[in-house]
Design a protein that fits this description.
The protein is mostly helical. It has 2 helices and no strands. The chain has helices at residues 11-23, 37-51. The chain is elongated, with a radius of gyration of 20 Å.
Length: 65
């Protein structure tokens, strides 16, 4: 069999998925992220800013000045 990894975007989706899986009598496990959600949100915002060209590049040589 295959294993599916699902990433619901909000609590409503999570609850709907759990109800669906339970209705089909499918065994499942849940894991909580070991990371603080605020920290994860900051990292994602930073990645989005870099993709949007808002990052600052620093040359390696400039790190020792």
């Amino acid at each position: 069999m295959e294993t599916l990894i699902v990433h619901p975007k909000n609590k409503e989706q999570l609850m709907a998925l759990k109800a669906f899986v339970k209705a089909l009598k499918i065994d499942f496990t849940t894991e909580k992220s070991p990371y603080n959600p605020e920290f994860v949100a900051k990292i994602k915002r930073g990645e989005a800013q870099i993709k949007a060209g808002k990052g600052v590049k620093i040359a390696i040589e400039d790190l020792w000045k």
